[in-house]
Amino acid sequence: MFAAAILQAWGDLFGVPVCLEGGERLVAREEARRFLTDESGPWKESRDTICGAIGEDGDTLRANALRQLTLTAPPLLVVQTKPKKTPRRARRRPAPKTLLAAE
C-alpha cells in the first residue's frame, strides 16, 4: 500500500493524473510535487514515513524526483518568456474557392 502511494504521487507529477478533471489535476500535481520534493515540513515527514515503511530512503526519492523534474519540466512549470502582443482586430478573409466549389 505504501509503495502504491509513492507510485501514485510519481504518476500525478510526471504523468496525467487519472480520474481527475481540470483544477483537480492541478491540485493533485501540486500535492505530488510537494510530497516528492519538499525539504522540510509535513510533506517531507510523510515521504520519510512512507519510504521508511517500505525500507527506502525519502531523501533518495526526493533526489530522483528533482533529477526527473530537470529532465522533463511538466507543462505547469513552463512560463511564457515573450511579451504578449496587443491583439489586432480580426479581418474577415474570404473562404478558399475550393471549399465553396460544388462537387
Mean pLDDT: 77
Which series of helices and strands comes N to C?
A: HHHHH
Model regions low in confidence, pLDDT < 50 over at least 5 residues:
none
Separation of termini? 62 Å
Major beta sheet summary:
none
Q: Using DSSP, what is the number of strands?
A: 0
What is the molecular shape?
Answer: elongated
Q: Into which percent range does the helicity of residues fall?
A: 55-70%
Structural class: mainly alpha
What is the count of helical runs?
Answer: 5
Rg, nearest Å: 22 Å
β-sheet strand percentage: under 5%
Describe the structure.
The protein is mostly helical and 103 residues long. It has a domain at 2-73. The chain contains five helices and no strands. It has helices spanning 2-14, 23-37, 42-53, 58-71, 97-100. Helix 2 (23-37) packs across helix 3. It is elongated and about 65 Å long. The model has no long low-confidence stretch (mean pLDDT 77).
Keywords:
103 residues; mainly alpha; 5 helices; 0% strand
Provide a short characterization of the protein structure.
By secondary structure, this protein is an all-alpha fold.
What layout of secondary structure does this protein have?
Blueprint: H1 2-14, H2 23-37, H3 42-53, H4 58-71, H5 97-100
Helix pairs in contact: 1-2, 1-3, 2-3
